[in-house]
Amino acid sequence: MELTRRDFLKASGAGAGGVFLLGSLKPVKTEARTHISLPLKKKIGEKTTICPYDGTGCGFIVAAENGKVVNIEGDPDHPINQGAACIKGQTLRQLSADNPWRLKKVLYRRPGGADWEEKTWDWAIDEIAKRIKKTRDSAFVEKNSRGVTVNRTEAIAHLGGSALDDQECYLLTKMNRALGMLYIEHHARL
Amino acid sequence: MTNHWNDIANADCILAMGGNPAENHPASFRWIMAAKDKGAKLISVDPRFTRTSAKADIYAPMRSGTDIAFLNGMIKYVLDDIEKNPQNYNMTYITEYTNASYLINPDYKGPIELDGLFSGYAGGLNEADASKRNYNKATWQPQRDEKGIPKQDKTLKDPNCAFQLLKKHVARYTPEKVNAICGTPVDVFLEVCKTYAATGKPGKAGTIMYAMGTTQHTVGAQNIRAYGILQMLLANIGVTGGGINAMRGESNVQGSTDFALLYHILPGYLKMIEDSDHTLEKYLERITPKSTDPLSLNWWSNTPKYVVSLLKAWYGGAATKDNEFGFNYLPKNEVGKNYSHIALFEAMEKGVIKGLLVWGQNPAVGGPNSNQERSAMDKLDWMVVADMWQTETANFWKRPGVNPASIQTEVFLLPARSSYEKEGSVTNSGRWMQWRYKCADAPGEAEDDLFMMTAIVRKLKELYSKEGGPNAEAITRLTWDYGSGHPDVRAVAKEINGYDLTTGKLMDTFANLKADGTTTSGCWIFCASYVEPDKEPNAPIPGNRASLRDSTPDKFNVGLFPKWSWCWPVNRRIIYNRASVDLNGVPWDKEHPVIWWQDGKWVGDVPDGAQPPMAVDPKATKLPFIMKPDGTASLFGPGMAEGPLPEHYEPWESPIQNLVSKQQVNPAVRIWRPQEHGEPDRFPIAASTYRITEHWQSGQMTRNCPWLVQAMPEPFVEMSEELAAEKGIKNGEKVIVESARGQVRMVAVVTKRFKPFQMNGKIVHQVGLIWHWGYIGLSTGDSGNLLTPHVGDANTHIPEYKAFLVDVRKA
Amino acid sequence: MADKAILFDATRCTACRGCQVACKQWNTNDEVIPQQQDGVKEVNTGSYENPADLSPQTWIKTTFREIERNGKVRFLFNRRSCMHCTDAACVKVCPNHSVYHNEDGAVSYDKDTCTGCGYCVACPFDVPRFTKNGLTGVFTKMDKCTLCTTPGLNRIAEGMEPACVKSCPTDALLFGDRDELVKLGRKRVDDLKVKGFTNAYFYGDKELGGLHVMYVLDEAPEVYGLPKDPKVPPAAIAWQDVIQPMGWAVGGLTLVGLGLNYIVAREAKITRELPGKKEE
Fold first, then answer.
1. Helix residue spans in chain A (DSSP H)
2. Which residues of A43-69 are buried (b: 16+ CB within 10 A; e: fewer)?
3. pLDDT band at residue A24, thresholds of 50, 70 and 90?
4. What dotted CATH number matches A5-19+38-95?
5. Domain containing residue B377
6. How confident is the model over B110-127, as pLDDT tens digits?
7. Number of domains composing chain B
8. Is the dihedral of CA B268, B273, B277, B279 positive or negative?
9. Hey, which residues does A109 pair with through a beta bridge?
10. Which CATH fold topology does C1-28+50-274 show?
């Protein structure tokens, strides 16, 4: 959800472990300089998310400018992490689009190919659907040896899902089972 | 988790075993510390001294793969102490809420009589014939009266009652025996027992925090059973600060399991259909547990409602009574056939699997025996990989030592969005379903997985409508109504919740689901997560309870946060909470109650069944363990593959002989590759894999992030100073670690935190390797999984990553 | 305003190292993500501890030590960063007052005016790090922890905690009024002594006039790699109290400066016990 900047600051103070107390007014040291007051270079506190690493489910706040991530830190209102974050959580920003290692294009490796080729989404979806249909249909068992309808194929397997959203996992199960797939597995055992 | 992360703060003792929360779930330590601040003790049981051990009150070293010996020793301590000091234990809980009093079939025999085996085994000791490595479980069942209700002896004195059978079973696991098997010093072991057993007192609670260190063994599921027995004897299930709490290693491994991306289930833990289920009726008959006991709620008796509502969600108008709600659209597993991870890669190697769909997983690094798994991929015609990064799996044809030209597999690599570049929910270990939002733009043409699968299904529907094919209607009639453009994730979330087809409104609760085709629910346990806007108007997305962000405390202020997100089932934050109260509905722990029967109703958490407490209304009441057919927790469990009670067997590869019996390995385990068994004379060192804080799983999400690579730049193997001295290895040097499956080159971290195990007069060394690395990405190196075996648990087939044999030498 | 400070409690730290990266994340350090050929310039030297040292891009790091006590192993974690001393050598030696105390007592610096002279290696904790000019090898700028007061990234002025403190899951790091934290730290150390940690020590209370990063330790400071009695090197005192008052004589500046740099550096080397090494 969207948080206002004011909410963020308020919450951030609240997360200070109870010792962020207002100081009494003592004379400022002679050489000490007051804080240089410049507006923050980064935007802070905008939309909430949940960490994609382990299963603790810590809350984070992502700040982006024109779609580009500028800051990610713990969500102080989140009951589990209360603003805190481990080293991986603190690194969330390096998963963003700014990371040159992120994939940006559909890639295809042809049989025996030595490297990747860039393709369009439309091409890839067409080709994938054709492969699925061909493999499924040529290795589809409608009835088993005793004549029971079993409508299955062992020729296509599925792996993964623990890094996806609930809704994606649900639809993958729905798609896989509709195709008659049995070899279905994700990270639960790994 | 039976409980949830915040609840750890309520514990009086935390047993971190088979898990390393400081390392792998660092934020959870906030709540461990909160408990410690209130005086709780932290016990760390681990082969090596970890970041968790560093904060523990007691550290107990234990050789990998000996958990059952350790836990049976603890159970024995508790049972002996119950005899001496019953006032320190919750005997009401044990007698009324568990099956301790059940009289077991008089023909039951255990490992004492059968030298490590249980009655009903098809084969003999150390049976080699795979077809005989299984049990007939008939003698493990309770005796039942003419009404079908288990016969009981509530005095727990009958030698044939579960309590006495358990006591007899664990009597062999003395502290000295535990020491000989596990290498745990006797005094340390007794200190662990004494400290943890103190949570057996009514009002005290102990929690077990575990992870893959417990499960990734040939006896992984029995390890968990042992936790269950211990927790039941200590009355630690259902209460605040208690429970058996699996720390999930991935953000949505809970959700992906709930939504059944596994071969043996359908969404909501409905058992998968098998060949023998000729009709829907037969299927429902097989998978719906029955109970004739009026005191048992037997929640799973509702199974038909959930199955039909699922079929209606998937096939809508095409699912009618006449076609058994589309039952035959779905495939059937071959009876008894295993389709799990290891089996999948074995089938791939044999050429059975031609096409592979991979969604954000990287088995070329994460799978056991990675050399086998990588080369099995050569047999595929095609592979589709959806990922944010280049992975070793997508690039299996580029792996070291192979010529890409010789590999004919086509690979489609689809660029995926990160978690904060799309909208949807994830379910954490505590079963909290939390909504997240699109916060930033994705790079280039990256798309979310929802888009990809929708595009594929739309295209398949088009192809099958046009060209037909076997069981084509399963695809053409499949509902996929999430808008015409980019799929609407909220529409999917609503389908998961389900609708009342008579009103067209979203379901309020799974209690109202029906088996007559008038309701839908894509996953019954998530029913009530997304309701009509006026039923949850204050949620940031009205009606969507996963989006709730109200941290108002619960009635008893025990950290349930009932209005923060939503948790399955029906927002019950601590499951089996009916066991947290006495027979009058008064909490065992009045300072930290979960629920309380007050003024004729339950207050606090959503109770496991709204019926009155047992003493208040003995007729209308229900037993607390509502998901068990008999309503009680299973001290003596009839369901497992290798026995009704946990028995110690050595890992498939072990440096020593089993000291409890002549049966060396779990007798029900499937041996896939006997030729790849490492013998202790050639590979004398015990080994385990594990993860580290700075990296994650197969590494794509961390090895491409320089902040993390800086913090932990290379893969390493940890070993004791003693072993290093023996092998002439200096700290920081490169070493070769070798198993019967392969070898890796890693940095040696020589540490005081590993110590050789002194067991039964023999010194056993253990080393530990991390597995986050591979040959693709910003930081590359070897994965520990090049060494791990293709052998798994007898029930779950989870690979035995945590105990195998290696040798180590200077590189 | 009362002085602010950080309290680090080693008995609560689990070395998750969230602080180490929270600092980089907020202060935009090590932002550039290299291609494979450039790599990340770190190696595992047989420890969990990395990067090997503080740097202009690494202002805080977690340290790891293994010791044995009564036959039992202990795994000790510590925080290595600027201590924000009251009697701060770096402030004393900085020729043009680029390094200074701010109103909260923290040691801040003005990167625009820093000449990279390198005098602040006088630091008894070996904290300041310098960016070198790639061609000449000459220092150009000093960098270190600013207690999150860098202009434009000043969390304190915005009413927020420092990034590292906010990040800490176990509240091993606290931020607040120094007086309050001193009381808390003393109490925690007293409690540790009662529990049998006879060498427990509250570090930073009195050292160098009082540090603004203080440590609750269950072992002696040296065991955690902290110098037992840190001192401002005499040369640094000389600079501030004797040489600097003579004024910036334009002609002699360079000569005096280089000579002093040498004296200060040698002094620092002699007097400090280098933290960050594994105890044998």
1. 5-14, 87-90, 121-138, 166-178
2. ebbbbbbbbbbbbbbbbbbbbbeeeeb
3. very low
4. 2.20.25.90
5. 341-428+432-467
6. 999 999 999 999 999 999
7. 3
8. positive
9. B411
10. Alpha-Beta Plaits (3.30.70)
Residue C23 pLDDT greater than 50, yes or no: yes
Rounded to the nearest integer, the mean pLDDT of chain C is 87
CB-closest option in C2, C102, C152 to A33 = C102
Same domain, B325 and B350: no
CB contact under 8 A, A19 and C100: no
Cβ–Cβ contact C37 with B under 8 A: no
Shortest Cα–Cα distance, A39 to chain C (Å): 6
Looking up tokens 């429970």 gives B243
- Chain B residues closer than 8 Å to A157 by CB: 344, 347-348, 353, 355-357
Q: Are residues B683 and B784 in the same domain?
A: yes
The answer on B384 and B510 residing in a single domain is: no
Q: What is the DSSP string of C128-180?
A: -EEEEPTTT--EEEEE---SS--TTS-TTTTT---HHHHH-TT--EEEEEHHH
B356 touches A156 (CB < 8 A): yes
Q: Write out the two tokens for B394.
A: 């997508």
Each residue of B628-686: pLDDT tens digit?
A: 999 999 999 879 999 999 999 999 999 999 999 999 999 999 999 999 999 999 999 99
Q: For residue C80, give the nearest of C62, C106, C107 by alpha carbon.
A: C62
pLDDT digits (tens, 9 = 90+) for A127-145: 999 999 999 999 999 999 9
ipTM of the complex model: 0.97
**Both tokens assigned to B460:** 């398949």
Domain with CATH 2.20.25.90 in chain A: 5-19+38-95
Same-domain pairing of B285 and B350: no
CB neighbour list of residue C204: distance below 8 Å, 6 or more residues apart: C5, C83, C185, C210, C211, C212, C213, C214, C215
The sign of the torsion formed by the CA atoms of B515, B520, B522, B525 equals negative
Residue B544 C-alpha from the chain's centroid: 27
The average pLDDT across B463-486 equals 97
Q: Give contacts of C36 with chain B, Cβ < 8 Å.
A: 777-778, 780
Contact B250 A49 (CB under 8 A): no
For range B284-288, the mean pLDDT = 98
CATH number of the domain residue B413 falls in: 3.40.50.740
The answer, as to whether pTM is greater than 0.90, is: yes
Lowest mean pLDDT among B220-229, B431-440, B495-504, C247-256: C247-256
Residues of C whose CB is below 8 A from A65: none
CB-neighbour burial class of residue C179 (10 A; exposed 0-12, middle 13-18, buried 19+): middle
C-alpha to C-alpha distances, B142 to B151, B226, B285, B594, B733, nearest whole angstrom: 7, 19, 22, 31, 58
Mean per-residue pLDDT, B255-261: 98
Q: Indicate yes or no: CB of C42 within 8 angstroms of CB of B707.
A: no
Rounded average pLDDT over A22-38 = 54
Query: In this predicted model, what pLDDT tens digit does every residue of C28-63 receive, in sequence order?
Result: 999 999 987 788 889 999 999 999 999 999 999 999
Residue B332 pLDDT exceeds 80 = yes
Identify the burial level of C55 via C-beta atoms within 10 angstroms of its C-beta, where 0-12 means exposed, 13-18 middle and 19 or more buried: middle
Tally Cβ neighbours within 10 Å of residue C191.
Answer: 13
B779 at the C interface (CB within 8 A)? Answer: yes
